[in-house]
Amino acid sequence: MATAVDCAQVTYEIPDLELQKRFLTAFGMTPAEGGDEQTLYMRGTGTQHHIHVSRKAPRQRFVGASIEMATREDLDELAALSGSSPVGESTEPGGGLEVVMHTPDGIEIKAIWGRTKAEPLADREPFRFNNLTDKPRVHESVRIETAPCTIARLGHFVLHVSDHDATVAWLMERFNFLPSDYMVPAGTDDPPYGTFLRLDLGDQLVDHHFLLVLQSDWVGVHHSAFEVLDLDAVMSAHDYLLEAGFTLDVGVGRHRLGSQVFDYWKDPHGFRIEHYTDGDVVDASHRPTSFNGTASETTQWGNRPPLEFFQ
Fold first, then answer.
1. Cα–Cα distance measured from residue 1 to residue 201, given in angstroms and rounded to the nearest whole number
2. CB 248 within 8 A of CB 230
3. What is the spatial distance between Cα 182 and Cα 289, in angstroms, rounded to a whole number?
4. All domains of the chain in start order, with CATH
5. Which tens digit of pLDDT belongs to each residue from 261-279?
6. Are 311 and 305 in contact (CB under 8 A)?
7. Mean pLDDT of the chain
8. Radius of gyration of the CA atoms of the chain, in A
């Protein structure tokens, strides 16, 4: 089975690229090479050429996501599946090869391989954290300004779908994902309405989730999530974005499913976008559990989302 290895990018259509660029720069991304008046490519400090794409269009919509594959042969395997495009050359900066697919709801998913890696951008080291029993930070003080943080990478995205089971099956068939946890309607023993999926890289540690699939009465993206250095990066960026007048959604808090310290914002076109740090990592031996609670109960501490957060 084809093996996914990284969450490469999310792609949107929006009417105002300059406004989007201003927000994403404040959020911690950097313009990538290859953009023009019709398309904005933004990168993090890691090696993906770009992680966030905005195309100019009269109306805003979520187009889809791109997933990096382990081998060239993975693309051939995916291209042979019903509904897939042939293997073709990418027209995006960085090049490489791609196979274009669409979920049962028509959300575009691209499998990519061979895109040119970017040179990592310089960044500070994460601050070491002195807890009660382990104090690795010796003769060092924490000093950080209220300023944009640096985005390292795209960590995951969340989809609203019309048929949860069909979409999960479609994704697992193509990308060798494993379930990490399930979300069950609060106070019931009904089937899951949400499934967290992760990479299957054997003994290699991976993020608790690569994506979350949510049954919904509408189709699209719930949010895209970007990993930052540490807790101080989340908090200093939170203050900066507030002072700059951007729209806070929910945060700061700590998730129950995945444990991430999160901070959700709304971009200028209404799309939810997340800073996160300190998430769980697991390997292929992890077994999923079921969460039976409300949206507010998914937060262990901090700013809790409203009950309708995942609807």
1. 12
2. no
3. 6
4. 4-117+149-302 (3.10.180.10)
5. 999 999 999 999 999 999 9
6. no
7. 97
8. 19
